[in-house]
Amino acid sequence: MAFPHRPDAPELPDFSMLKRLARDQLIYLLEQLPGKKDLFIEADLMSPLDRIANVSILKQHEVDKLYKVENKPALSSNEQLCFLVRPRIKNMRYIANLVNADKLAGRTRKYKVIFSPQKFYACEMVLEEEGIYGDVSCDEWAFSLLPLDVDLLSMELPEFFRDYFLEGDQRWINTVAQALHLLSTLYGPFPNSYGIGRCAKMSYELWRKLEEEEDGETKGRRPEIGHTFLLDRDTDFVTALCSQVVYEGLVDDTFRIKCGSVDFGPEVTSSDKSLKVLLNAEDKVFSEIRNEHFSNVFGFLSQKARNLQAQYDRRRGMDIKQMKNFVSQELKGLKQEHRLLSLHIGACESIMKKKTKQDFQELIKTEHALLEGFSIRESTSYIEEHIDRQVSPIESLRLMCLLSITENGLIPKDYRSLKTQYLQSYGPEHLLTFSNLRRAGLLTEQAPGDTLTAVESKVSKLVTDKAAGKITDAFSSLAKRSNFRAISKKLNLIPRVDGEYDLKVPRDMAYVFSGAYVPLSCRIIEQVLERRSWQGLDEVVRLLNCSEFAFTDMTKEDKASSESLRLILVVFLGGCTFSEISALRFLGREKGYRFIFLTTAVTNSARLMEAMSEVKA
Amino acid sequence: MNRTKGDEEEYWNSSKFKAFTFDDEDDELSQLKESKRAVNSLRDFVDDDDDDDDLERVSWSGEPVGSISWSIKETAGNSGSTHEGREQLKSRNSFSSYAQLPKPTSTYSLSSFFRGRTRPGSFQSLSDALSDTPAKSYAPELGRPKGEYRDYSNDWSPSDTVRRLRKGKVCSLERFRSLQDKLQLLEEAVSMHDGNVITAVLIFLKRTLCKEILFRELEVRQVALRHLIHFLKEIGDQKLLLDLFRYLDRTEELALSHYREHLNIQDPEKRKEFLKTCIGLPFSAEDSAHIQDHYTLLERQIIIEGTFSSPINLKKTFKIPDKQYVLTALAARAKLRAWHDVDALFTTKNWLGYTKKRAPIGFHRVVEILHKNSAPVQILQEYVNLVEDVDTKLNLATKFKCHDVVIDTYRDLKDRQQLLAYRSKVDKGSAEEEKIDALLSSPQIRWKN
Question: Its membrane topology, per UniProt (chain A) (predicted)?
């Protein structure tokens, strides 16, 4: 049922060190403002902070009261104020208002701003403009890698996606490079690297630069992690836009997993209160079902429940001594398991209820039709109806994007009509959202002369040299097509199925989408790892619009052990989904690899769409 | 931001003048001499002030290294009581008081943590940053090795400068005065890919170049241009952003950017007025229509009563497609259990006055929506009967337990077997069972099986 790793699978490095490191750095920074102080924390940093420290640690370092950074005047009467924030302009304005109000009242306090994971010059500029530069001291808390699980590191930077893929702002590339650099000082060197995407290439180059500058202290050490793979989210939007059907993905889509934990409401806990549950490998029940297709989960849980019952039942007919043993040794574990079991059963029920209500079956059918490219008219009118019935603004948008990417853009007539109906259903201000989606290449209109594919491909082949780079640039920005259909064919993303696809015994990564589709991102990784290069994938790379951004970098002297060569770090720039994680875990089990995931944030279709939405704050 | 614009400009203009000493153009002898004097004068205040990094810290974001010290000396010397002077002194004092914070003696030594392993990079840069901030004193420092002067004065190449910026260190950009130098700096920043540094350089360029030149140069540097646009959006410099779009002839973005502002307006009346200003903007043809609709909608919402707001009227005004109208109206009426209205929604009269039922969304969808809104079986039945496709009709009727429809359909199909099978699904002794029995024993039907 659950995926046991092959006996020869390599051990994962211990990433808990990253937590201790982040905690110690924070303490170090707090100590720089000696004495009692109030701490203002940005909401987005609270959950990550929770994962590495707790209130008593903060108290030990003379943090008196904790406040949330929000749009309200602060009531703190402390003489020292410390702000723990993301480097955002609005935070600077908040701090400036506070400091300037103090000044006006003739009050002097000490202020310290700790930027995490780094400060931006634009923030300091605001401090200067607001006249408080020098009144506040600034520091950086380079907390950019949070181990959410034994194999999952998150940078907890959901804004990376919008900043880079919509606005073209490269501000986080240095953060990524620094994070990779930190990993290589702790677990490096990384002998073999591959990547695809413009951002991947830039991050890699900057990372290398950092390694050179800090003259490789890793030299002479044996590599622990044999391969690194960097991948831009925009090389595969399709996978991220699909409804998730493996358990962990489904829990994320339904309840939103935040920083590795989820809030299960009363409908799940079958009590009157909500429960915050940590979801990771330590949860023995969860770890067995997280990667499973949802259809298997129920059966597994009920089997588990029966086993549990049997174990409880054993206590009948025990003598006193046995009973004593049972109570002292097994009961606690059983109770724990019982608690987890009932939680996940509750979650399953709640998911089932919600999904039945929203015609999940029909939704999935439409998605599969889009992925495979048949019944486009029917799918289009399904989406239309979805919009007209005002089912959900985010879902409607997601389906439109999926249609657009799989079809290389909507035909103009459909684009106009769907857009108009969308605006009428969900509000005219969404025309800003449509403009964003178009810029990001998520929802486009087929250009009238879009039949020029052959010419276009010739031209792009002709102008690959640097001198003509500008032309290529102009060209690709005009007609950056997703080419999903062609890529899907080349990479066999739609498995040919004779008979039923047995989801209990998955045969390929397609199981994470009910056997209908192999996630493109994961397929690319699989293919490159198999070849240890991009050789033979030229056409795919070209179709991905990445001719200039696919790279391989292998060290010549290879001291990597065969074990380390089966340990692979995959870096998702712009976020990865739990479905992708499950698919690669499956691949790892098949091939004897183990994957370590580093992502700018865990994402899903709703988060991607929300990042693009433009509505009132 | 705007409040300081004037002051700021004046200040920078004056400080540019004062910073002439940094000028390193040496094509003419007089200038060379001037630079030499500049370097010397620089050394003066450097000796005065032991730490260069601190000075740079004050200055990375634009304040020229020289001008601050210079102006402080000036203000101390003659006009110490002017407003500007006081402000500067104050900020200097508070800054130095920050710099004099005792260096923490953390018991949590990170390096002890990594004994045997290498020191992590990020910590290294943290400690670097700290050692860059030693306590500052005003006592002149003697015997400083000559090499260090060179290090921070005006000899940093664009790549050194960008590297320092990348490390988060403070660094004066004031020496990049010629356009060529500025652009070289920008290009170096772009080649390193670090968006934070690109933006830092752009902040400097924005301040030291007139906008026409800045725009002209960015137009051919797309990466930098995107950073400037995002920066302007973030700090809310709407005016410059619109100027930029105008310069680039990106009319649609210009229009959208202007339109976006309405999101921040709370008052409906003001919002409406603002939207009116958007109507003439160069949107794409289709968006123009949407904007017009948005305005009309707000107008309607404000005068909510009267015939203007009748659903049919709204449908006409906003050209709502039949499908969308029917779906919205159907869900709304069904929620209110206004079955009569639902009926009216699908009833059309032809010119002879005959009525006919018609649904642009297909009656099978109507049935599902009604069922979702818990319509009673009698109502459901009526619409199930209107479904044309027989299989769909049977499926729906079975699913929603519209027994009469199922029975009648099997009768029409003359399907005895199915009818017999269905008999087991209805309640014993019910009217439906009786009906089936009557049909099965009827001699008038010629069953096909």
Answer: Peripheral membrane protein
